[in-house]
Automatic annotation (TrEMBL):
Keywords: Signal. It comes from Thioclava indica. This is DSP-PTPase phosphatase fused to NAD+ Kinase domain-containing protein. The lineage of its organism: Bacteria, Pseudomonadati, Pseudomonadota, Alphaproteobacteria, Rhodobacterales. Residues 139-239 form the DSP-PTPase phosphatase fused to NAD+ Kinase domain. Residues 1-35 form the signal peptide.
Length: 266
């Protein structure tokens, strides 16, 4: 009987000790929160490197992996600096690239720029049309109804050698309305003057005007202008006259052109 009572007490004592032991063991095992506090290199801190408390609590996290670190600003393509495509300085660079793509003169075809149309006919638009150089077309009378088509064909500038009482009375307005530049160099004499040739040379040598359409009533004055212009650029006089003939110069105006170039008469 005494033995049975002794066993019963031990069992009760053992049962009473179980929760106490478990509690003691639980207190001995650190929780995840306390582990993080104890181990600043715990992986949990790398989950959110941008959290306010994360950066100071994890000194062992690699700096490159932290998008909130000061170095991360360098990865921003819009950050200030020379390599910043969003900076205001980027626009002038683009303009400079555009300028470098322009031809250097009426015969420069080393760049891809809009040229004057090929061919020797432009029905219902320009009489006696020809192409004197890659960026300069020539011809006679322009049909006013066809002026918008010139813009569609790529022309940017129209230079007229007509007198004020010749051609369509509103030609200049129609050209401008179609989105092209209009320049008039009225030539009432048998050949353009030296000042008029110099004025045309400035227009013809400026790539910003390309492609150009140079015209008059029949293309005779155009041929005279072209011959004198080419001679002013160093082309031998006889060759310049021949070029003028190709784009419309006729015997009615050639004597004056030859005289201006110091050539013997026909």
């Amino acid at each position: 009987m005494r033995t049975h009572k002794t066993k019963t007490r031990k069992s009760l004592l053992r049962a009473a000790m179980v929760p106490v032991t478990a509690l003691a063991m639980g207190a001995a095992v650190p929780t995840s929160a306390s582990a993080q506090a104890t181990n600043p290199c715990a992986p949990a801190a790398a989950v959110n490197p941008c959290a306010p408390a994360a950066m100071p609590s994890n000194p062992c996290a690699p700096a490159a992996a932290n998008p909130c670190a000061p170095g991360a600003a360098a990865a921003n393509p819009c950050a200030p600096g020379a390599a910043n495509p969003c900076a205001p300085g980027a626009a002038p660079a683009a303009k400079a690239a555009d300028a470098s793509a322009l031809p250097k003169g009426p015969y420069d075809t080393t760049v891809k720029a809009t040229q004057a149309p090929y061919g020797n006919e432009m029905p219902n638009i320009v009489d006696n049309y020809l192409r004197a150089s890659p960026y300069i077309g020539t011809g006679g009378f322009i049909d006013p109804t066809g002026i918008p088509m010139l813009k569609m064909l790529g022309f940017k500038t129209v230079v007229s050698l007509l007198k004020p009482d010749e051609g369509a009375p509103n030609e200049g307005d129609l050209v401008k309305k179609s989105g092209m530049n209009y320049i008039q160099i009225s030539v009432p004499t048998m050949a353009p003057t030296a000042d008029q040739v110099a004025e045309f040379a400035k227009i013809a040598d400026d790539p910003a005007n390309y492609p150009i359409l140079l015209h008059c009533e029949s293309s005779n004055r155009v041929g005279a202008m072209w011959a004198l212009y080419r001679a002013s650029k160093g082309v031998p006089a006889e060759i310049a006259v021949e070029e003028g003939r190709q784009v419309g110069l006729k015997t009615s105006r050639e004597p004056q052109v030859r005289q201006d170039l110091g050539l013997p008469p026909l």
